[in-house]
Specification:
It is built from eleven helices and eight strands. By secondary structure, it is of the alpha/beta class. The protein has one domain: Arginase, Chain A. Strands 2-1-3-8-7-4-5-6 form an eight-stranded parallel β-sheet, with helices on both faces. Strand 1, helix 1 and strand 2 form a beta-alpha-beta unit. The chain is globular and about 55 Å long. Belongs to the histone deacetylase family. Pfam families: Hist_deacetyl (PF00850). Pathway: Ketone degradation; acetoin degradation.
Length: 409
């Protein structure tokens, strides 16, 4: 087994004499049944490879692993129409496409057992969210989750049921008054935003590639939420080609201040890793190292504003062997307070197993290279810079609703 790194990290917040950190992750082979078939980008192999890598790195020793059961209709109906749930169940059983509900399309092809498989993903996220809210665990993670495109009445973008929205709805039903949802997937978190468009109790913040160049074509900085909830939808639509430092600048300049201003009791975050430059479906260029840094920042936010109550979810990510397992292994490490240094060698045992599946050139380390941190927003913005203009526009748009100064940090 590969030696685990012992380098310090801001992700490890334990102090001498404090109780042990409690972290829980959903994982069982049954989650691999969410499978759209050969050739589909969202291959369940992503999960299998990730947990195999995490095992070799020793990360699973720091996590309580639990399975997940399919959630019942009662919880699904908190975020989905009954007609849609019945349509999924029917299409799952008889294999008849239903394009009205987005079922049987190239993005969302049918497979037998679709309803149960998708409901199991929801069950995992809901159970973890409630465990975090009740104080049974400090942090929790469901890498099979993050199905942020599913709408109330239709499947969309590889997502059948919206586990993120269901998890948020579950803690609201248990008495939470403010929940912050942070979406770092390259695609706009449209389904979660739409689910809480008119709910002032939920802040949705999405950092994504502009809809001018990427599905689903939504998530503009002027989209601020519905009546009674203005300012609770925040969208950072970045230009195609945005790299690691400006992407992290967006996290520092928008995500951190708006979440702090909202002062949530729970933080739910989505860590689709398709913002990486190697991803075949997107046009951003964000390194593994930068994505790990963003995880640490979200983690630290949860401790700063929500007493550490944090649920992290997976999402997109289609560079299946070279990127997804490394990024999500980092997420498991941050959640577990056992962070992996990006200079750590990729365990040769894991690489050998991957080579048996696909003859490919795998990275040698858990990172892509030196991390270049962005200039802090407080140092001033550059009006000639495409990303800075986006960030200023976003901050100005939300300033009337949240305590965020448009220009200064």
């Amino acid at each position: 087994m590969a030696q685990r790194p012992t380098v310090p990290s801001t992700a490890d917040t334990r102090t001498p004499g404090s109780r042990p950190h409690r972290a829980r992750a959903v994982w069982s082979p049954e989650l691999l049944r969410y499978d759209f078939g050969p050739g589909h980008p969202m291959a369940p192999l992503r999960l299998d490879l990730t947990f195999g890598l995490a095992r070799e790195l020793g990360l699973l020793e720091h996590l309580e692993l639990v399975g997940a059961d399919p959630v019942g209709d009662g919880l699904l109906l908190a975020v989905h129409d009954p007609v849609y749930v019945e349509a999924v169940r029917r299409a799952s059983d008889d294999g008849t496409p239903d394009h009205v509900h987005g079922l049987g399309t190239p993005d969302n092809p049918l497979f037998r057992g679709m309803h149960e498989a998708a409901a199991r993903v929801v069950g995992g996220s809901v159970d973890l969210a409630l465990a975090v809210w009740r104080g049974e665990v400090d942090h929790a993670v469901n890498l099979a989750g993050g199905m942020h495109h599913a709408m109330r009445g239709r499947a969309s973008g590889f997502c059948v049921y919206n586990d993120a929205a269901a998890a948020i709805a579950a803690v609201l039903a248990q008495g939470a008054r403010r929940v912050a949802y942070v979406d770092l997937d390259a695609h706009h978190g449209d389904g979660v935003e739409r689910a809480f468009w008119r709910d002032p109790r939920v802040l949705t913040v999405s950092v994504h590639e502009s809809g001018q160049t990427l599905f689903p074509g939504t998530g503009h900085h002027t989209d601020l939420g519905g009546e009674g909830a203005l300012g609770t939808a925040v969208n950072v639509a970045l230009p195609a080609g945005t790299g690691s430092a400006p992407w992290l600048r967006a996290v520092e300049a928008v995500v951190e201040p708006v979440v702090r201003a909202f002062d949530p009791q729970v933080v739910v975050s989505q860590h689709g890793c398709d913002a990486h430059g190697s991803d075949p479906l997107t046009n951003l260029d964000v390194s593994v190292d930068a994505q790990r840094e963003a995880m640490v920042r979200v983690h630290d936010l949860a401790h700063a504003v929500a007493d550490g109550r944090w649920l992290a979810l997976g999402g997109g990510g289609y560079a299946i062997t070279r990127v997804v397992p490394r990024v999500w292994a980092h997420l498991l490490g941050v959640v577990a307070h056992a962070p992996v240094d990006t200079a750590t060698a990729v365990p040769p045992q894991w690489s050998a197993q991957v080579q048996e599946w696909e003859d490919c050139d795998l990275p040698a380390t858990m990172g892509d290279g030196p991390l270049v941190l962005p200039r802090p927003w407080s140092s001033g913005y550059d009006p000639a810079d495409d990303v800075d203009r986006v960030l200023l526009a976003v901050r100005a748009a939300v300033a009337a609703h949240l305590d965020v100064d448009p220009v200064y940090g």
